[in-house]
């Protein structure tokens, strides 16, 4: 099953070229384009994408607001941000806004594809070096975050975790993203490993 993508940016021609490139990748399908702030929500409503890929400068700098709006209204849609420079502060702001992936514009296509796949799976997918290092003494997870990571360590899918804990899948993804950020993991499985190594599970 293909990962369905809506692309949002400022220039129709650039988006069309970008869409053609991504459509050439096995497992990816661009299902919609949005070139204005007001067009993003309708595009997500209409196409029900797995991932929304946003340009950082999208819609006059409103990309972070778009990310927050989409995640609140459509929790099953992951958001990835394409940025000019992926710095720690940019990553922090993006993750706080609800984005699960951050990719610099100078990245190669395989890195973007890896990020899109991670985001589609509900995993925070960013360069680990851009996440704030956490000292062992600072590690603290909520009970729910620990529950999610414990089940993740056992190989459960997001859907299975949601059923086990009586939570919405979107809530499980949000808990997972928070835990990944706190632990500095590359993805949910890496976060579960780190938590286990520090006796948190």
Automatic annotation (TrEMBL):
<dbReference type="Pfam" id="PF00072">
    <property type="entry name" value="Response_reg"/>
</dbReference>
<dbReference type="Pfam" id="PF00196">
    <property type="entry name" value="GerE"/>
</dbReference>
<dbReference type="GO" id="GO:0006355">
    <property type="term" value="P:regulation of DNA-templated transcription"/>
</dbReference>
<dbReference type="InterPro" id="IPR000792">
    <property type="entry name" value="Tscrpt_reg_LuxR_C"/>
</dbReference>
<dbReference type="GO" id="GO:0000160">
    <property type="term" value="P:phosphorelay signal transduction system"/>
</dbReference>
<dbReference type="InterPro" id="IPR051015">
    <property type="entry name" value="EvgA-like"/>
</dbReference>
<dbReference type="InterPro" id="IPR016032">
    <property type="entry name" value="Sig_transdc_resp-reg_C-effctor"/>
</dbReference>
<dbReference type="InterPro" id="IPR001789">
    <property type="entry name" value="Sig_transdc_resp-reg_receiver"/>
</dbReference>
<dbReference type="GO" id="GO:0003677">
    <property type="term" value="F:DNA binding"/>
</dbReference>
<feature type="domain" description="Response regulatory">
    <location>
        <begin position="4"/>
        <end position="120"/>
    </location>
</feature>
<feature type="domain" description="HTH luxR-type">
    <location>
        <begin position="134"/>
        <end position="199"/>
    </location>
</feature>
<protein>
    <submittedName>
        <fullName>Nitrogen regulation protein C</fullName>
    </submittedName>
</protein>
<dbReference type="InterPro" id="IPR011006">
    <property type="entry name" value="CheY-like_superfamily"/>
</dbReference>
<keyword id="KW-0238">DNA-binding</keyword>
